[in-house]
Amino acid sequence: MEQIREYFEKTLKLTDRDWQIFSSKLIRKEFPKKHVLLALGQVEDSLSFIETGITRFYIPKEENDLTFAFVFDNNFVSGYDSFLTQTRSTYQIETLTKTTLWKLSHSDLQDIYKETDIGHAIGRQASEELFLKKSKRELSLLNETAEKRYLNLFAEQPHLIQHIPLKYIASYIGVTPQALSRIRKRIY
């Protein structure tokens, strides 16, 4: 839980009272590898912080799922569009490794907004992080080669990327597994 406070205190100063209210709403949960955190058609009710683990966002397809995001340790994870609008998700989120989350429900977040001085800043920081990652991903798809996207992913989390199956990485960078194999041969 202290990881979350440290995360916020990089840019915000939390009072002990605000932290007490916020942290009292967090629920720690552990999930096994390959656990679906958010199913297609389900409404997202949690904004979660990854203590440890890796998650994958994807659109299930008959032949090959379309992976469009990975989220690693010390980051927020949520089907945030579904969370904000309280509508059904059009994608799924699953764990790729054993994952420990600190979960905050939608209704508890609303209470934090009302009860604390810092609540809105905390919510804004979490939403800005999720927005910036989404924007970075979109720009990467428009401006970079698949090889560059692969190298960027590897640079971001070199110690964790080994836990992601290559077929998911290939889907994420927008190539076939065979094309990813050729990219990897050129690089290494």
UniProtKB/TrEMBL annotation:
Family matches, as InterPro entries: cNMP-bd_dom, cNMP-bd_dom_sf, RmlC-like_jellyroll
Domain Cyclic nucleotide-binding: 29-115
Signal peptide: none
Domain of life (superkingdom): Bacteria
Name of the protein this chain belongs to: Crp/Fnr family transcriptional regulator
Lineage of the species this protein comes from: Bacteria, Pseudomonadati, Bacteroidota, Chitinophagia, Chitinophagales
